[in-house]
Amino acid sequence: MGSEEKPASGTRKGIPNHSPEFRRRLAAAACEPGVSVSKLTREHGINANMLFKWRRRYRAEQAAEKTELVPVMVVSDAPVAITPTSSVEQEMVKPTRTIGTIEVRIG
């Protein structure tokens, strides 16, 4: 059965209270490629639905840690000029195109 953690006594009889470290460790193991969730649950004596819940929470936490906002710098804030081209097209005002560049720096 490997390195099995003895759960602390829960508030209700028969329901173990596993530590957050134990939950994270098993959830991380369940995310590894080729790992059988069923085998993990049998080895540690827990319910598969419980491990799936821990794994879902673990993945959400990992995704939240990876999400970052990056600074953006506006180089020029010149407004786009809108000019009518003829008296017929005055009802449909079209913006004139301005040529610009967008530079994206990664790393």
Unreliable segments of 5+ consecutive residues: none
**Based on helices, strands and strand pairing, what is the structural class?**
mainly alpha
Strand content: under 5%
Residue-averaged pLDDT:
78
Question: Helix and strand succession?
Answer: HHH
Largest sheet: none
C-alpha end-to-end distance: 45 Å
Number of helices: 3
Quantity of strands, as a count = 0
Radius of gyration: 28 Å
Which bin fits the share of residues in helices?
Answer: 25-40%
**So what's the overall shape?**
rod-shaped
What does this structure look like?
The protein is 36% helix and 0% strand. With 107 residues, it is mainly alpha-helical. The longest helix is centred in the middle third of the chain and has 19 residues, at 48-66. It starts with 19 loop residues before the first helix and ends in a 41-residue tail after the last helix.
